[in-house]
Amino acid sequence: MLPAGRRFRVVLVLGLLTALGPLTIDMYLPALPTITDDLAATAAAVQLTLTGTLVGIALGQLLVGPLSDAVGRRVPLLVGVGVHVLASVLCVVAPTLAVLGALRVVQGLGAAAASVVAMAIVRDLFSGLAAARLFSRLMLVVGVAPILAPTIGGQVLQFTSWRGVFVVLTLVAAAILASAAVVVPDTLPVAQRRNGGIVGTFRDYGGLLTDRVFVGLILVSGLAMAALIAYVSGSSYVLQDGFGLSEQQFAFVFAGGAVGLIGATQCNVRLLRRWTQQQILAGSLLAGLASGLVLLILAVTEVGGLVGILVPLWLVLAMVGLVMPNAPALALSRHGEVAGTAAALFGAVQFGVGALAAPLVGVLGIGAVAMAVVVFGGMLAAALVCFLVVRPHRLPAEQVEPVAVAGH
């Protein structure tokens, strides 16, 4: 069991690690229109650089998760974040959109190591309600990232080009790498490591995929992520091109949505004192579905203008903020013996499904209606999977406290 003081430092760095993915995704959002002009590309093509990042995160987790179960958490973590730093440096000098897109995939691969290992470490140290509470606390840090990232990106664009945004991202990733190297221990004892090789990895993945509830929960999380990514990928065009906001104004409005998401994740800790994870998950999906429907209606009818878009959109984000800590806590509590592999599959499906949202918004158009259609569709599909596949009302309530880790 980690001492209390050291545990606090580890949790803080875990928050920074889980923030690396959102920072990678969001920091360059205010620059999307500028990149479109500078590299003589279409908006849909530039949005594919966002998709590439999400695909990299999804694939990277499938690789890093089982590796962390076999060799421990620390080495895959440090190597992965190091790859991210190198890719960020190369993004600064990317000569074409194709090269930038390829490097964004590599960035995603590096960010995946930070995300999946952080989730696995949480499962090494906690389970059940304790894990859900910690996921909520980590979501506070993750939620701050979408607030800070576009704001930082918007401010950087006042003094330099979009390439300067990647300079800042390089420095942030390097600082996170240094912090992890100093603070994060290996929380997986040697005796608990799995050495089944490729065959064992496929066997573990196969076992996870036979668990209907686990698969349903990762689909629910992925579809909720798709609604979030639809907002992330489409909002810069909707708000800047459609409603005429400046890069800095967009950054502050974007931050408003992140505040709702952050607030919801922190309310989740209090809600868990009265309701189960299953009840919160079900209620948040129903509320998110209703908000998504209102968003779609107002976008189609053009009633309410900017406010008519932002208010229901922010409500959807808040409900996603309740889904995100509870779905992984419920899913990972079922497979603690392969926490890294389970976290990898969870994250891969979550970001893989989410990755489909960005090009879908681009195909449908870059207006408010296209974004609203994908947001509503994601929440509708998530709710259907939850109630038809997961069936949360039939799941036992978790009442599990933190678990000790031998030798740590």
Structure description:
With about 400 residues, the protein is mainly α. It has a single domain, classed as MFS general substrate transporter like domains (Growth Hormone, Chain: A, Up-down Bundle), CATH 1.20.1250.20. It contains 15 helices and no strands. It has helices spanning about 5-25, 30-40, 45-70, 75-90, 95-125, 130-155, 160-185, 195-210, 210-240, 245-270, 275-300, 305-330, 340-355, 355-365, 370-390. The longest helix has about 30 residues, at about 210-240. The relative contact order is 0.17. Residues about 400-408 have low confidence and may be disordered.
Q: Short summary of the structure?
A:
The protein has helices at 4-26, 32-38, 43-71, 74-92, 97-125, 128-156, 162-183, 197-209, 212-242, 247-271, 277-301, 305-332, 339-355, 357-364, 368-390. It has 408 residues and is mainly α.
Topology:
Blueprint: H1 4-26, H2 32-38, H3 43-71, H4 74-92, H5 97-125, H6 128-156, H7 162-183, H8 197-209, H9 212-242, H10 247-271, H11 277-301, H12 305-332, H13 339-355, H14 357-364, H15 368-390
Helix and strand composition category: mainly alpha
User: Which geometry do the CA atoms define?
Assistant: globular
Oligomeric state of the chains?
A: single chain
Taking all residues together, what is the mean pLDDT? 83
Would you identify the CATH architecture? Up-down Bundle
Look at the structure and name the CATH superfamily: MFS general substrate transporter like domains
Query: Total strand count, please?
Result: 0
How do the helices and strands follow one another from N- to C-terminus? HHHHHHHHHHHHHHH
Overall structural domain count: 1
Spans where pLDDT lies below 50 across 5 or more residues: 399-408
* Cα radius of gyration in angstroms: 20 Å
Amount of helix: over 70%
